[in-house]
Write a structure and sequence with these properties.
Strand order of the largest sheet: 1-2-3-6-5-4
Order of helices and strands: EEEEEE
Largest sheet: 6 strands, antiparallel, barrel
Radius of gyration: 12 Å
Shape: globular
Strand content: over 45%
Distance between the termini: 32 Å
Structural class: mainly beta
């Protein structure tokens, strides 16, 4: 697979949460890699997942707004964005 990221992402394996629907819906996931620009998330299923949501990584005390960049079999790539 061709690397298209502007900077490499260090591998990690951290519990995370995808928060959406005005904070009424939470989906557990795992952050597989993470930088200040984006992340790769392992999800049980992306059905019904919006294109924009908040990502929370409790171990790092991190909360970022995200835009989905790509989806593939149980994984999604996100880019961190300003809240809109």
């Amino acid at each position: 697979m061709t690397e298209r990221r502007t900077k490499p992402r260090p591998r990690t394996l951290k519990a995370a949460k995808i928060i959406f629907n005005q904070r009424r819906s939470i989906l557990d996931c795992t952050a597989r890699d993470l930088t200040d620009e984006g992340a790769c998330l392992i999800v049980g299923g992306a059905v019904g997942l919006p294109n924009r949501f908040e990502l929370q990584v409790p171990a790092d005390n991190l909360r970022r707004h995200c835009r989905v960049a790509w989806k593939r079999a149980g994984r999604i790539g996100v880019k961190f964005v300003e809240k809109s």
